[in-house]
Amino acid sequence: FALVSSRMAANVGEEEATVSLVDVLEEDEELENEASAVLGGSDSEKCSYPEGYVKRQALYACNTCTPKGGEPAGICLACSYKCHEGHDLFELYTKRNFRCDCGNDKFGEMECKLFADKEKVNSGNKYSHNFFGLYCTCDRPYPDPEDEVPDEMIQCIVCEDWFHGRHLGCVVPDCVELQEMICESCMNKTPFLWNYAAHIAGNVVQDNGTSACKRKHQEEAEGSSEEGLCSGCRLREMKASGRSRTLQGAVFWLSAWRTKLCTCSDCKVIYTDAGVSFLMDEMDTVLAYENKGKSTMQAEQAGGAEGRDPLMSALNNLNRVQQLEIIHEYNDMKTELKDYLQRFAAEGKVVTPEDIRHFFEQQQSRKRRRANAGQYYCS
């Protein structure tokens, strides 16, 4: 609750706090779930370099070691903790097929503390302006101190850049079933995907009378992959149906859309030539990665992870009487805090940093009185 108090104070500066505790707790829970999903799928203790080009992992860029104007570089989760503590880091969320750069030639004389024996460069890595803290077609940082428009950022699953919703060239759908997005630029680089978009993406538009401009785009999309397609090809069948959509703007895809992609031998060649063979892999998705992270965290919490939990480690070092004292203290504090906060909820009041401080000051005062009276718990 010291965190809650400081966050409230930070939100309002010197003014009186007007943020409800419910809002703060909901935000904390959302951030915790996101962190568990993103970080749970990556190792926080070991550099990922020995694993090669990791299928998907949480990545960071160090603005302190590799600032804009130099060569872009990315570091794994463990190196962000052990080698770049206190540095100015850009959180890149997750990226696919990347090998940790920490300590290679891009970092000058600096060596990785976790795995120093690295090649000079990782030639298989792909970089973008994200590695310098810039995003979207507007090439701006996030959060942007000069942007007063509230807007969410959405990641393209192909180029893995992040885009403001208002810069996607389409209306962002309010539907949880539309889980993946491909930006317009990537759609145009892989034009055969427009054929799939007309059938298995969100906001599908049926159009029997296409305009000249639209026909031109559609002919280009079909011509790029028509030749050599095998009989029974799902992509060929979609083209033959005559169903189409506007070939502009980002495309949001329905849940499990990857399972509907044709995987005949000819289509596999098309995916490979376009550099998007990962689309055939359902486990490539960020959702699959996050689910893996959540499962890992839940497994650790369920058992076998007590040695890694600071609280459990501390309790294990205490005798039974001391353990019971801690447990009783915790349960008492939890009950009293709940009763204390319920009064605010009943009266429709917000909880200020001063209210939180007052509660814990009362807790400390009661604890001192109990200690002076010689009160203790025994088994």
From TrEMBL:
Pathway: Protein modification; protein ubiquitination
Catalytic class of the enzyme: transferase
UniProt-listed InterPro entries: UBR7, UBR7-like_UBR-box, Znf_FYVE_PHD, Znf_RING/FYVE/PHD, Znf_UBR
Pfam families in alphabetical order: zf-UBR
SMART domains registered for this protein in UniProt: ZnF_UBR1
EC number: 2.3.2.27
PROSITE patterns for this protein: ZF_UBR (PS51157)
Entry keyword set: Isopeptide bond, Metal-binding, Phosphoprotein, Transferase, Ubl conjugation, Ubl conjugation pathway, Zinc, Zinc-finger
CDD domains: PHD_UBR7 (cd15542), UBR-box_UBR7 (cd19677)
Superkingdom of this protein's organism: Eukaryota
Gene Ontology MF: a single term: ubiquitin protein ligase activity
Keyword flag Phosphoprotein: yes
Domain UBR-type: 45-117
Segments forming UBR-type zinc fingers: 45-117
Functional description taken from the UniProt entry: E3 ubiquitin-protein ligase which is a component of the N-end rule pathway. Recognizes and binds to proteins bearing specific N-terminal residues that are destabilizing according to the N-end rule, leading to their ubiquitination and subsequent degradation.
Protein name, per record: Putative E3 ubiquitin-protein ligase UBR7
Organism: Sinocyclocheilus anshuiensis
